[in-house]
Each structure stands twice: as structure tokens, then as C-alpha cells.
Design a protein that fits this description.
Elements lengths: L6 H8 L3 H16 L5 H10 L4 E2 L22 H15 L4 E3 L10 H10 L3 E2 L2 E2 L23 H20 L4 E4 L4 E2 L7 H17 L6 E5 L9 E2 L4 H11 L3 E6 L9 H10 L3 E6 L16 H16 L8 E4 L8 H20 L3 H9 L3 H13 L3 H10 L6 H8 L1 H5 L17
The protein binds alpha-D-allopyranose and manganese (II) ion (MN) (2 copies).
One manganese (II) ion binds next to loops.
Length: about 425
């Protein structure tokens, strides 16, 4: 635990807030009981929830235009782990970090695992990066990586993914997530079928090297960096590839990777039905892959997704075990603050979905009572369960109010001397 934000410090702030929380919690408990919902049960389930933090999310992001660095940004994987630890210390639902390679590679990966362990943190899925060239790279990914027309380039991209699995093994990960930026910018530039064939044959090599207890997640994205076509453009192509590869391959849903207004909750339902849902990269957006904070624009969509997830859990859907992760880029906020509020926002959607009266909903659906079915969802969504989230954090030793607690600690100011501005932010979008 950090010296700046430790148990003693959190307790001292919590002690001035616990009386108010107790009153709010008791009153909420009383109201929920009228709907036959136990506030304690809800709190226990909220505590058991977790969502992984992306290592690249703790650096300040940027756009194609500029990057405005923040104070005391983490400069390497060890400092990123330190920041992730602050997040988990305060919110208690982010015990895992998802690293991105080669950004997070160091000679001694065991030291990375050890450093995380000292903060009681583990590693979630490892992410490969074949969407940019590394210094002195022999064959460029400019025209694609796993789908490149040049065999040598494809081999390089395959080898990088195999390296990621090796690095992942050293830090205790059991999943590799593959997102490629491959695609085209002009009609006619690329043969759609040929590109997908090359993708599949490359992925088959990676899949064949996957350890038995590992999974492979495929991430689709409809545009960017290629703007006319993307090889793995949507969940349909994604799931077809996952099916073609085998049982260890699953389809990952990044909320920003669809056309605006697409019914993402329905995609989630379909992937659950065919036992192919890998999990999520949570974020929010207005236009595309905006990578804004989870639940900041469309919390109802996030709730509707969790409605499908909780429904699957409720009916014990076979093979249902999705991984939850945030994938965001913070351009104008302190990444630690954004990641804390985002994790809590995702947790909120989960708890709201737990409150849906599923028996009543099924009856309304059966009776074709559209209005009441929709009202049943709204009733859960409209219930303010802030006290449940606060209590679950309090009981776990976290902060009742994580943002106030974080700000009052002056973490960045205290680290400013030790972490001078660096050119390489390790951010996920542009390395300046
Ligand atoms: C991309 C994708 C993918 C990738 C990340 C890198 O969402 O998850 O790993 O951003 O920053 O848009
Ligand atoms: Mn993503
Ligand atoms: Mn994205």
C-alpha cells in the first residue's frame, strides 16, 4: 500500500462520513425491503464484483491533434502498478491490471509480478500490439500485421503475439486479447476475403501455441486506424473467427467499437447464447471509439448490458464467465480519478441490474405488456444505490468517497519531484 494513501489515512476520512452513510444505508434498506430486496445481500454482491484496469489507462491519453500531459504521470510499468494500487486501495474492486505489450515489457518480468503482488494486485489479460511499429522493426505494419500480404510481416506479428503469451505466463496471466488495426482506407485497396483468410491462418498459429488453461479473446472494431474497412470489423466476423479457431477463442466487446446506436446489449445476449462472450472493454462514447469514462454519457446502455449479464447468471447460462475490464483514454481528467469513477459506475450498473424483478419481467414479456416490462427495468435503474456501493467499499477497507479522499491526499503533487515529465507517456493512443 502507498505511504501517501494508506489504511490509517482512509479510516480518518471515513470516520467523518460513516454516520451519514449508516443513516442513508438504513433508509435504503427499508425502502428495498418493500420490494423484497435485501440490502445486505446486494452489498455482498457489490463487494464480490471486480473490473480490471488497463495499464495504459493510467497515463494521460491524447488525440490525433495533441496530448496534454498531466502532473506526475507514471513512466513505466512499475509506476503504473503504483497508480493502479491507489485505485484499488480506494475503490476495492480493481485488483487486476491488464498490461499492453511491448509497452509494459521489461527484462525481468518476474519483478513486475512481484511489484504487483506487494500491492496485492494480479494481472488480467495481456494485450498485444501490432498496430504500430517498434523501433528498428524489420517489416512494417503500415499495411497490416496478422493479415499483411507479406509473409515475413505476418510472421513478425505472429511472433509478437507468441512473445506476449510468454510474458503473460511470467506474470500469471491466462488470457491474450488480440486487437489488430488491419484494414483499408480505399475501396479496392484490399481483398476482403484474402485478408480474412490470412488473419485466420495467422491466428491459427497463435491459437495452437496457447497453453491449455489459456483463452484467446478477439476484439473487433469497425473503424480506425483504417477508415474504409477493418478486417475484424464487427461481432459477426469476430464470432465466426472465434468459432473457426476453437473452444478457447472468445469474442470481446469493447463498447466503443460499434456504429453509433447499435444495440450492444443484444450483441451481448447473442454471444452469451452461443457461449462465446469473452467479456468487455468498458468505456462510453458519443460518436465512436471515444474512450470516454464508463457510464458518463449513456449509463442506461451500460445498465441494459448488465441486465443481460445478470439474466445469464440468474438462469445459470452454460459457459458464462465473462471478464470485465475498462478500456479508456483520459485526455482532460486525472486518469486515477476517471478510472475510480468508471469502475464504480460499472459496479453500479451491475447492482442496478441485480435489482430487476426478473419474475415480474418474464410475466410482462409473456403477456406482451411492453410498458410494464420497460417500467420493470426502469424501476431498477432509477433506484439510487449509492449507499450500497459506499458501504461495500467501507466494509472492504476502501474509501466511502474515493475522489474526495484521493484529492485530499495530494498524491500527484507529492510525486511530482520523483516523476518528472517524460516524453513517453505509455498512453494507448499516440506516443509523442
Ligand atoms: C484500441 C482497442 C484495443 C487496444 C487499445 C490500445 O480498444 O483494446 O488494445 O485501443 O490503446 O482502440
Ligand atoms: Mn478495447
Ligand atoms: Mn478502443
Amino acid at each position: 500500500m502507498s505511504e501517501i494513501i494508506n489504511t490509517e489515512y482512509i479510516n480518518s476520512l471515513n470516520s467523518s462520513q460513516i454516520d451519514t452513510l449508516n443513516r442513508d444505508y438504513d433508509y435504503l434498506g427499508e425502502k428495498l425491503l418493500r420490494r423484497n430486496i435485501s440490502v445486505e445481500e446486494l452489498t455482498d454482491k457489490a463487494s464480490a464484483f471486480s473490473v480490471a484496469v488497463p495499464s495504459w489507462g493510467v497515463g494521460t491519453g491524447g488525440t490525433r491533434f495533441a496530448r496534454f500531459p498531466g502532473q506526475a504521470e507514471p513512466r513505466n510499468i512499475f509506476e503504473k502498478i503504483d497508480d493502479c494500487s491507489i485505485i484499488n486501495t480506494l475503490v476495492r474492486i480493481t485488483p487486476e491490471i491488464s498490461p499492453h505489450f511491448p509497452w509494459d515489457v521489461v527484462d525481468d518480468m518476474a519483478a513486475v509480478k512481484e511489484h504487483a503482488a506487494t500491492h496485492s494486485l494480479n494481472f488480467a489479460s495481456v494485450n498485444s500490439n501490432t498496430f504500430q511499429d517498434q523501433p528498428d522493426q524489420k517489416h512494417s505494419f503500415k499495411y497490416g500485421s496478422l493479415t499483411n500480404t507479406n509473409e515475413k510481416t505476418r510472421e513478425l506479428a505472429i511472433q509478437h503475439n507468441l512473445d506476449c503469451i510468454e510474458w503473460g505466463k511470467q506474470i500469471g496471466s491466462k488470457v491474450i486479447t488480440v486487437w489488430i488495426g488491419d484494414g483499408s482506407n480505399f475501396p479496392g485497396q484490399q481483398n476482403f476475403t484474402g485478408a480474412l483468410e490470412r488473419y485466420l491462418s495467422s491466428m491459427k498459429v497463435i491459437y495452437s501455441e496457447l497453453p491449455d488453461d489459456w483463452k484467446l479473446f478477439i476484439e473487433h472494431k469497425m473503424f480506425e486506424p483504417a477508415f474504409y474497412s477493418t478486417v475484424i470489423q464487427d461481432w459477426g466476423t469476430n464470432v465466426l473467427c472465434a468459432m473457426e479457431l476453437g473452444d478457447k477463442a472468445y469474442s470481446l466487446v469493447d463498447l466503443g467499437h460499434h456504429a453509433p446506436n447499435v444495440n450492444i446489449e443484444m450483441i451481448v445476449a447473442r454471444l452469451i447464447q452461443f457461449k462465446k462472450l469473452a467479456g468487455f472493454h468498458f468505456n462510453d462514447s458519443k460518436y465512436g471509439d471515444d474512450d470516454l469514462d464508463s457510464g458518463s454519457i449513456n449509463p442506461y446502455q451500460q445498465f441494459l448490458i448488465f441486465n443481460e449479464l445478470v439474466d445469464a447468471e440468474f438462469r445459470n447460462a452454460e459457459g458464462f464467465k465473462p471478464d470485465y475490464m475498462l478500456d479508456q483514454s483520459h485526455n482532460v481528467t486525472d486518469p486515477i480519478e476517471s478510472l475510480m469513477t468508471s469502475a464504480v459506475s460499472v459496479q453500479r450498473s451491475f447492482v442496478q441490474a441485480l435489482m430487476v424483478d426478473r419474475k415480474a419481467l418474464a410475466e410482462f414479456q409473456n403477456d406482451n405488456d411492453a410498458l410494464m416490462a420497460s417500467q420493470t427495468l426502469k424501476e431498477a435503474f432509477d433506484t439510487d444505490i449509492t449507499a450500497v456501493l459506499q458501504m461495500s467499499r467501507y466494509k472492504a477497507g476502501g474509501a466511502i468517497d474515493p475522489i474526495t479522499c484521493y484529492r485530499a491526499a495530494h498524491y500527484r503533487e507529492k510525486l511530482a519531484k520523483d516523476r518528472p515529465a517524460s516524453k513517453n507517456s505509455g498512453s494507448g493512443i499516440v506516443l509523442w
